[in-house]
Amino acid sequence: MVRSRVPLAAVAALAVAASLFGSLGCAKRADEIVIGEYGSLTGGTATFGISSKNGIELYMDDRNAAGGIGGTKVRVIVEDDQSKPEEAATAVTKLIDQDGVIAVLGEVASSRSMAAAPYCQQAGVPMITPSSTNPKVTELGDYVFRVCYIDPFQGMVIAKFARNTLGLKRAAVFRDNKNDYSVGLANYFSEAFQAMGGTIVSDEAYSEGDQDFKAQLTVIKSKRPECIVVPGYYTEVGLIARQARELGITVPLLGGDGWVSDRLLEIAQDALNGSYFVNHYWEGDPNPVVQKFVTEYRKRYNATPDGLAALAYDAAGVLTNALDRLREADPKAFQALKGPRNDAQKAARAKLRDLIAATKDFPGVTGRISLDAKRNAVKPAVFLGIENRQYKFVAAVEP
Amino acid sequence: MLRRLLLGAATIGAVWAVDRILVHGLNPYYYRILVLCGLNVILALSLNLINGVTGQFSIGHAGFMAVGAYTSAAFTVYGVPRWFGVTPESGPLAAALPFLAATLLGGCCAAFAGFLVGLPSMRLRGDYLAIVTLGFGEIIRVAILNIDAVGGARGFAGIPQRTDLAWVLGWCVVTFLVIRNIIRSVHGRALLAIREDEIAAEALGVRTTRYKVTSFVISAFFAGVAGALFSHYTYLHTNSFTFMKSIEVIVMIVLGGMGSLSGSILGATILTALPEALRFASADRLIIYSALLIVLMIARPQGILGHREITLRWLRRRGAP
Amino acid sequence: MQELFQQLANGIAWGSIYALIALGYTMVYGILRLINFAHGDIYMVGAFAAYFTARAMEGSALAASPMAAVIVLASAMIACALLGVLIEFFAYRPVRRSSRLTALITAIGVSLLLENLGIRIFGADPKFFPQVIAPRTIQLGGGVLVTNHQVMVVIVSLLLMVALTLFITRTRTGKAMRAVSWNRDAASLMGIPVNRIITITFAIGSALAAAAGVLVGLTNPKIEPLMGIMPGIKAFVAAVLGGIGNIPGAVIGGVLMGVSEYLVVGYVSSTFRDAIAFVILILVLLIKPAGLLGRNVAEKV
Q: Among the residues of A212-342, which ranges form H helices?
């Protein structure tokens, strides 16, 4: 009996699944703007996702406490993507089609932003990524924006600093081969550094989460570089610096904005003295925006913000700023954003997109942010040096 | 023969119709989950052939999936525009044939990998074989990270999105039929004999090595197909093929009941839907998920269905007073 | 040459960490035939237990004394022994009579639970592990540099290997363990309290994982909730490499893994560091299917 063995389990299972979903779905309250955020709250890069979430939460709660956008509160729905690209796409589909968000914030990792961005583009929902640096991310569509540097810019900045300011010729690159940010930055740095007449004497790799780097560092040491460029995250850089010093490597380490965190010097202790990295701001900056962010973040989360929290804070800022301008310029469209998902709202989202694209000189924690024609942030970079476990300002590089 | 052809055509028509109805009538979020669910069904059914039916222990299924995903994607990106003249902008109909070719290619490459991984089963048993499959999965991932042409750690960009529910459901049906027919054939009896007692099976004249390697090859083929469908659906990055993915598939078949095909389908569906249903718990959902897993294993160690199958006849019997 | 010796010295130290974790793995496996997936996560909990103990002592007179390290280590080992016993009682014991895959899935569930609880309770960001023993660099001659922590790891793993071997071969409990591992039902009939023996096994195995966690925390002072995943897998591989269930085998397997990783980075390519470990494993298993020191037991029909 062939017909009797139909996989009825499939039917049964679908029914189970459907009933599970049926109970979900959030009731949308009338007078609020709902935006979505997706990030890695669990999985391998949970620490970055949680930092970003904190940054956005801090900004939005502040803003709502101060009356929101002209009296309208902003609600952020946060979805976890388990640090997986396919989950990022699922999370964003859920935010857009289930929760009806009018804009999306996220992700840290470029690969996950690239998984999700096409859905935002297709649905006409603006998406601002706080910290995806791969140039390809914003090329995915005109609804996709970012508030961070792109890899080529930061790579060039580091190369210039090493070659011109420090006058070094021989650099070693130590990249996180599992991390798209690190690989991209390493490639663009190498390109720029060689174009300026420098040599890459060694190009070694590690994987995020590694605890032991001495094998690679021994190889690097034997090539006698004048500096080691580590375009990774603070989670590994502290240990790398320690182990380099334990092996008797004394040359400075150079890095990008992935280094930014309190934990960096806590873990590295004295090992990073004499090293340099790119940042968006420095804690000693008298700029009240920076000071307010740093003190409030410390107070609320009992930790110093890392670069990802600062960028997420600014992504939330850029979005709310555009919403502010929309409310002033076109109150009707602003009302439509709160309403049901119809053509009026779609037109309003398109207007919101235009206003985000027109962002100019937004005073963020990570600098004055303007968005260029390719929807990338244009802002200065700051070079910080480390001395006696203290940061010191070295140079600012204009875009 | 004619009846079979008709049945086949009817299935294709039905699958296509279901897809058309759902793509317009269903919230895209649910549609997406259905697609992911279908992919997991293919993975679970195919792994069941090795772990459930043949009684071997593979924990590297994500590796086969990765092989299929990357080879088919490379074929679509580099080969298809040249040989078929189909570009990412072409419509779905013109792209159907090259996409079918890409999935088959992905499946075949994965099957070859399955052959290589299956070979050590000549000498290795149980946990030792498991470790070899685990090692294979890790090796594949590291290798892909080092190939620049497929993007390395940055992910493989620019793959046209070809997969829809029709393709996935179609392949689900094919996987189910092929594996069901194998189990029912004389070859299937041999595989079951190996599961129950390998030495006894060998003594009875079953060529155990050949059967074990074959089950690896067939299983890997479908895992590769699932990978190919996956890579044409969402952004392709090695983070999707970690060791945890292999574990996820194992959990699906154990939950559903080892050796039971309908169990695999049930397990795959539940484990795709469960994390979504737990979204309200936000960051706590994986805590709940893992706790549920432990409780389920304690409460029902043989899985939901055990060795049984859900069939029409079984349902009718249950329904009768 | 100096470079080679440097790589070898560090490779042995790194491999000893794998060996430490592998010891616990191999013990539990030897007795229960269970791949205790949560072992790597118990190692993580051990590191965090030590972290919180050290933080609690900070500023007190104890923190400055050499006793600090002992207290930190002891508290971590006790905490993890308790955790191991609890896990065994609540999660593994109920599925002991079920199929091995069921037990494996349960272990995976426990592992996921510990990781996600870790993220929730300890926070996902990495923590700095207090340096209860100040790091010092030691010249080994020929320009080879190691730290006192690395030397400590090697010595401790060797000591533990010897102690465990003696425990298993010379004590009554050890003999009972071997009996349980040989045939659980027969052991039970001979009056051996099987449940208690298994509990002891888990306590010891988990305490070993905690010791590894503390030593790793000292050597590489950065701990986070997911730190156990990769070392857990690699240590398991090391245990299989040496012949699972075999105590000296675990240490040899671990050191072999560490050294081969270092040589791969030094003389092949750092991008293949994680892959080559597995390639070597597969090759060894093809030649010696039961691992380096494992015995090939002929199966009876």
A: 214-222, 234-246, 262-268, 288-301, 307-329, 331-338
